[in-house]
Design brief:
The chain has no helices and 7 strands. It is an all-beta fold. Strands 2, 3, 5, 6 and 7 form a 5-stranded antiparallel beta sheet that branches. A hairpin with a 2-residue loop joins strand 5 and strand 6.
Amino acid sequence: SGSAGKATVKVKKAKRAKGYQYKISQKKSFKGKTTLTAKTKKLKKTFSKLAEGKKYYVKVRAYASKNGTKTYGSWSAKASTKIR
């Protein structure tokens, strides 16, 4: 316990998506300081320094950019994983 683990999230390409926003948390509600958010143009994101033995919840949404304004899609269903 106390050591760090990793979780990798992969998504399928969405039409017209310029990038993806990933959210990972120890809480189902995605509230609090245990929530990490990352934006990337890649279909795969690895979160590191996660607590081993803990359960994490993940969700993703795509975004498109038009005239400098970002438009976000809806969040995916929550998926969970246990860090080993």
